[in-house]
Amino acid sequence: MRSTLYLKFIIVYIIFGFLSLFTVATLTSSLMETPMQNYLTSTMYTEANLIANNYLSSYFSNELDGSEVALQLSGIETQLDAAVWFVDKEGNVLFSAQPYDYPMSPSVIEDFNPAESGSSQSQTGDYHGYFDEDVITVIAPVVYNYSPKGYLLIHKYVSDLNEFQHILLRATTITMIVIYLLSFMILLAFQFFVYRPLRKVTEAAKQYASGNLEYEIPVNTEDEMGYLSASLNYMSSQLKDMEDYQKKFVANVSHDFRSPLTSIKGYVEAMVDGTIPSELHEKYLKIILFETERLTDLTQDLLTLNEFDTKNLLLNKETFDIHEMIKNVAASFEGTCTQKKISIELLFATKHLNAYADKRKIQQVLYNLIDNAIKFSDPDSSITIETTRRGDKIYTSVKDDGIGIPRNSLNKIWERFYKSDLSRGKDKKGTGLGLAIVKEAIQAHGENINVISTEGVGTEFIFSLPKG
Q1: Helices (H) and strands (E) in the chain — how many of each?
Q2: Which secondary-structure segment (H or E) carries 464?
Q3: Residue 96 is assigned to a structural domain of this protein
Q4: DSSP bridge pairs for 286
Q5: For 227-268, how does the pLDDT look when each residue is reduced to its tens digit (9 = 90+)?
Q6: Quick one: DSSP state of residue 426?
Q7: Of the residues 241, 271, 287, which one is the last residue of a structural domain?
Q8: Is residue 124 classed as helix, strand or coil in its secondary structure?
Q9: Three-class DSSP category at 396
């Protein structure tokens, strides 16, 4: 970017300057020439007619003498910087006045024709060869007693108009150059507000691509670049957290797979080489079966979580009786509850209560919560499952009188593979994924699940579902 983007911007800036100057030089002259000539012609024609009609006509009535006419023509010559001829209708020059750089007027205009301009207000040329260069000529009749007695002719060099154009062109060019130099501030603004922050963002992208997620972009502004930098910093922190989580996740998965596999391998090898006598094979085969079930549960839980993570989960929502589901799930734990002498108490406000959700996912939620409650409940205790309806929501509570959850672990129980220190002595078979699956399933429905727990007293999980 150092050798491309900034250089391209400078090249574009320089090209823009040359094109601007070229445009001013080529278009200004052509755009001004015709309007200026029309304006000058109109001014000369108006002035000639004004003097001819309101002043010079008195010359033929003997109200003006020659000195007064000469003075008037001299005034016009000074005002317009042009040659002024006052002639009779035959073309004889009666009076004239002209600047020093104009030729003297002839005594008689040969082939004089006052109508030679036709319908135009003026004519351009050397006017019968009396001028060395082109002039703009206007002719105004001097009328006395309703008939033209003479004519007033005004001649002005076309070069005077070109000089004026050059003055305007020079002023326009200088103005354009000043604007172009001032626009250099845009280049500086681009350097400080776009290019430099963008270079930092690019450097950050390179660092992240190379695996350096510790790199942080300094955020000094609150504009779009600052927002982009802050977003990239946040992204890098999230990626770093995810990288740490992935490492921890892989370590936990490896540990949870390695432990049962090591046990299975050890017992099988001992049985094969005779270390474990044949009369004890049944005992250790049951242990192997137990460890195999752990691996099966772990694999199934990982597949379930992957289903949520990949965002490919399609909820098959339907209306079902949640009370009937709770009864069926609770009945599936009858054997386990009998062994541990744990009772399950169902508290339903109504006989039937319909919920609208994915039946299979909610069944898994209930199974995981009840299984979790049984694992951490003491013998001869009870588990209470209660439902309540508030508005268009159904709230389901699973409460046990077990060991409870420490306060500092309440926010961690939803993490995958997390097991509190108090649970390790009781949860021999757990994968540490049950509550993570519960939370993912409830959140997939757009609902919430909360936990209330007191260490040594018990734990209660409450989740909501839409009413069917």
Answers
A1: 11, 12
A2: strand 458-466
A3: yes
A4: none
A5: 777 777 777 777 776 666 666 666 656 655 776 787 788 888
A6: T
A7: 287
A8: strand
A9: strand
Collapsing DSSP to helix, strand or coil, 415 comes out as coil
Residue 259 and residue 280 in one domain: yes
By residue count, the chain amounts to 468
pLDDT in tens, 166-221: 777 787 788 888 887 887 787 777 777 777 777 777 777 787 777 777 777 776 77
Cα-atom radius of gyration of the chain, to the nearest Å?
52
- Domain of 216? 190-287
Instruction: Mark whether 167 and 243 lie in a shared domain.
Output: no
- Token pair 């060019």 is found at 173
Q: What is the total count of domains within the chain? A: 3
Angle subtended by helix axes 224-272 and 196-209, to nearest 10: 0
> What residue has token string 């699956």?
437
Which residues lie closer than 8 Å to 410 by C-beta, 6 or more apart?
451, 453
- pLDDT at position 461 over 90: yes
Q: Cα dist. 375→29, 329, 401, 442 in Å?
A: 96, 16, 11, 22
Q: How far apart are CA 459 and CA 62, in angstroms?
A: 129
304 within a domain of the structure (yes/no):
no
Scan for tokens 């797979």, then name that residue.
257
CB-facing half-sphere around the CA of 418: CA atoms within 13 A: 15
Contact 433, 302 (CB under 8 A): yes
**Is there a domain that residue 234 lies in?**
yes
> Based on the domain organization, do 460 and 359 belong to the same domain?
yes
| 200 and 156 in a common domain | no
Give the Å distances, CA to CA, from 96 to 102, 125, 156: 12, 19, 14
CB atoms within 10 A of CB 351: 8
| Residue 223, domain CATH | 1.10.287.130
Q: Residue 465: in which H helix or E strand, if any?
A: strand 458-466
- Tell me, yes or no, whether 374 lies in a domain: yes
